[in-house]
Fold:
Amino acid sequence: MEIISPEADALVSKAERLLRPSILAFRFSADLDAAAPLLERAGYIYRSCQASDKAISAFERAAGVQEKLGGSGGKLLEACAEVARSSGDFSRAAAYVDRAADAYCSSGRVTAGADALSRGGRLLEGSDPLASAHLYARACGIWEEEEKEALGLDVFRACASAYVRAGRSREGAQALERLARACSNAGSSNSMQKAQLGAVVAYLHAADGVAAWGAFQAASSSEGAGGEELGAAEALLMAYRSGSEDAVHACVSSRAIFKLLDNGAARLAFALPVGDMAAMAGQVEAAMGVASAGGGGGSAPGGGDAAGGGAEQEEADELL
Structure:
């Protein structure tokens, strides 16, 4: 059923007349300055009447006029996204957020583009976590390109959380590694270490022992490495290497640091182990063996050889 709004319809009609030259009105070119606010006002009226398609059309046309006037039109495209989200069209909402960000960036307002993507991520968090994560990820890319990660750390955290909520543990792990690098660049070592541990946990939840070991190795060699988080990651990998589910449960439950992880990583930690435990043990064992044989690629936990065990293997054995 079509929703009728005479006031908004009249505003659109007037704007359309203003966008056409008229000899009778002594208007020899489109009056963009007069038409833009009429379309924008019509959009808000349509939105209040829940006439979603008409509201989006009015806002989109107003954005186009603003761009012709030298503006970005980004605010109006964000309004399109909000209406699309309210009507349940989440993919369309995400597309309008992307367009809004493009509009801001093309007009030289790069940080405004990143902020628009962050707002879009929040807009879709509860309805489409994966689309939300993608928007956050693009915002993270802008902060990285601008070398302003310190201003966007909350966005990096939100990106990781969104991927985890979407059930994408691997992408969540990658986002946590990205967060760790951003924290390092921002000089936030405590947050960096938590993100590094979270990445190891998320890779294990994705049943990728090789990537988990790689994340641990990267954390071990990073500037400011150490702390309780690195020790917990080491112990968790050794528990996996033992092939015992009980050892994994005991490792997570006995170390308070796992409860302090954010971005959904704590929930993933207490869901471990996931997948074929024997296969995961083999992956971790093989990865540790390759690293040990490679020399410069890092050593097995505890500073010993991968086959022999070391202090952490003894700890895993004690937990059984």
